[in-house]
Design brief:
Shape: globular
Distance between the termini: 34 Å
Order of helices and strands: EEEHEHEHEHHEHEHH
CATH architecture of the domain at 13-157 and 240-311: 3-Layer(aba) Sandwich
Helix content: 25-40%
Number of helices: 8
Radius of gyration: 19 Å
Length: 312
């Protein structure tokens, strides 16, 4: 489905399908974006961009790469391990450690190109990838600057449950492990339809309706991004906290970008409070969470470019 993109490629940008392995030997599928007038004899700053949790490279990451390549960056987008066109079995598995590793694997790949300045490689995470990018940066000092947009810290979700609800969910997932083992494969229940529909179904909770308005409609629908992961994928996030070491990213800078009206604001605000200087919290006026997936007129690309160019 690599030909299925949710945006139009700018006439001044080249996009090349690439593949490379992460540290676990999983083959990642990516797209490399460069300006058509790039001088391959020179060295350029580079960015690796991760998709929203459950998203793919043909959606939001490509929207960002399409813009940032025009502004002087070499940009790599990728599908997370076990998802999209990347390798790994079983499909639709989620792993906080491996998803963080996928960012470092992108740095590995970018750094092999003679036209990339290894001392100027940054990471940008959209939604759930914001947490994975920060987790990767906490241990990978090659990542010189980090930006997140509409960040979700998936591992913080356990703190949103009352203790009795968390205990019940862990018990339910423990039972699910036996079912998966007996069935020979993990259970995966997609959230969004196989083909896009025209309207958001009635009766959805507000946040679910917001996500459906992107992933379930023509705006952002992609057959490789139907939402959700194998049911037992939630278990490691109860035990692996992505941002425990966010303060150690310093002195490398972090930019948190969030919508003024985003339901996810508290994730960025909490991460900002835990991070050490230098750090910045940038609020996009009159924007909700999914606006920063693909609304080019709202995504503050000038701010993002200024941040990376001044920080690396």
């Amino acid at each position: 489905m690599s030909e299925y993109y949710t945006f139009e490629l700018n006439k001044n940008v080249n996009r090349t399908s690439v593949s490379y392995n992460n540290r676990y030997g999983i083959t990642l599928a990516g797209d490399l974006y460069t300006a058509k007038d790039m001088d391959a004899e020179k060295k350029y700053p580079a960015l690796v961009i991760g998709a929203p949790y459950g998203g793919v490279k043909e959606q939001g990451p490509g929207v960002y790469a399409n813009q940032l390549a025009q502004r002087g960056f070499v940009v790599l987008t990728f599908d997370a391990s076990y998802n999209g066109e990347s390798g790994g079995e079983p499909r639709h598995t989620s792993s906080p450690e491996i998803f963080s590793e996928d960012f470092s694997a992108g740095v590995d790949y970018l750094g092999t190109h003679p036209f990339v300045d290894r001392s100027k490689i940054g990471a940008l995470g959209i939604c759930g990838s914001g947490g994975f990018a920060l987790s990767a940066a906490a241990m990978d000092v090659r990542i010189k600057a980090i930006a997140t947009t509409s960040m979700y810290d998936i591992s913080a979700m356990r703190d949103l449950f009352p203790s009795e609800m968390l205990t019940a969910q862990m018990q339910q997932l423990a039972e699910q492990r036996w079912k998966d083992f007996e069935n020979g494969e993990p259970t995966y229940v997609p959230t969004f339809p196989e083909s896009p529909v025209d309207d958001v179904p009635e009766g959805l909770e507000a946040n679910a309706a917001e996500f459906f308005s992107y992933y379930g409609l023509k705006r952002g629908h992609h057959p490789n991004a139907r939402g959700g992961f194998t049911l037992t994928s939630n278990l490691p996030f109860f035990n692996y906290q992505l941002l425990n070491h966010i303060a150690t990213v310093s002195p490398r800078p972090i930019l948190f970008v969030m919508g003024e009206n985003a339901h996810s604001r508290f994730f960025s605000e909490n991460a900002y409070a835990a991070a050490a200087e230098p750090k910045e919290l940038y609020i996009v006026p009159d924007a909700i969470h999914i606006d920063l997936y693909d609304k080019v007129e709202k995504i503050p690309f000038d701010k993002i470019v200024e941040f990376f160019k001044s920080s690396m």
